[in-house]
């Protein structure tokens, strides 16, 4: 075991470039990734993307979660190593080493469910004397969102090389289940913005208004019926004008006859 190696930006870029080349060469929409030992946290950072931990000027790129179907960690030092209880040697430094609270491990463990789009697994042994089963009060190989598969009696090398059947079973289980896609991981830059904790805002007091009495709904006016048009009364025919009656001329008296005159004289 090399004690003078760390999870540097150069190693992360190398693994990420390898993933991108496999995707390009195979023209596959998605691939499966298996990370062993220290290769597990390095591969997780390569998938996560964002800026390098030890060199903020290097941008790895966006998350590759959507291009990874299943991720498997085998004896991975995802929470640190049992041998790094003290920050000795490069492998245990507090920046890019396997110390429990190193800056690198804090970066990759900030989010969960970003390693794959379907399922992620964690294969660990209770007899692993390199990474250890427990480290800093945590399970050394666990990571947020990973489904644990525990084996007993296998040392570090046996856990890596003698569990091929278990690893194949994990892949088959992932493809058979086809669980729902996971949310796309956020970049490291977005994570850093959330590190600044803000005091929770006090809930605003909502002034309750006095209930307004229900007003009776205005009565709708009945539709007015059109008044029947009045028929003009038939005009009465004017009575015919009577011609003014002509006065009869007085009848002329007839002249007395001669015998009558003579009789009148005799009587006188």
UniProtKB/TrEMBL annotation:
Residues 188-204, 257-268 have a biased composition (Basic and acidic residues). GO terms for biological process: lipid catabolic process. It comes from the Eukaryota. GO terms for molecular function: lipase activity. Residues 176-268 are annotated as: Disordered. This is Uncharacterized protein. The lineage of its organism: Eukaryota, Metazoa, Ecdysozoa, Nematoda, Chromadorea. The gene is Cnig_chr_IV.g14130.
């Amino acid at each position: 075991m090399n004690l003078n190696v760390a999870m540097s930006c150069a190693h992360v870029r190398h693994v990420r470039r390898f993933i991108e080349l496999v995707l390009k060469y195979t023209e596959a929409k998605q691939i499966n990734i298996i990370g062993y030992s220290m290769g597990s946290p390095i591969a997780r950072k390569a998938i996560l993307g964002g800026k390098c931990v030890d060199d903020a000027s290097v941008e790895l790129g966006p998350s590759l979660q959507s291009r990874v179907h299943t991720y498997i960690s085998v004896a991975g030092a995802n929470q640190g190593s049992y041998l790094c209880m003290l920050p000795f040697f490069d492998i245990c430094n507090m920046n890019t080493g396997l110390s429990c609270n190193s800056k690198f491990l804090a970066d990759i463990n900030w989010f969960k469910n970003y390693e794959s789009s379907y399922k992620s697994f964690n294969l660990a042994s209770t007899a692993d004397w390199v990474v250890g089963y427990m480290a800093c009060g945590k399970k050394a190989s666990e990571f947020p969102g990973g489904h644990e598969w525990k084996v007993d009696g296998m040392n570090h090398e046996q856990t890596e090389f003698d569990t091929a059947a278990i690893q194949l079973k994990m892949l088959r289980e992932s493809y058979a289940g086809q669980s729902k896609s996971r949310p796309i991981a956020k970049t490291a830059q977005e994570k850093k913005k959330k590190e600044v904790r803000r005091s929770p805002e006090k809930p605003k007091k909502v002034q309750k208004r006095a209930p307004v009495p229900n007003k009776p709904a205005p009565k709708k006016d009945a539709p007015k019926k059109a008044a029947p048009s009045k028929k003009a009364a038939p005009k009465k025919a004017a009575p015919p004008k009577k011609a003014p009656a002509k006065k009869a001329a007085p009848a002329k008296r007839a002249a007395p006859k001669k015998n009558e005159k003579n009789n009148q004289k005799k009587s006188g």
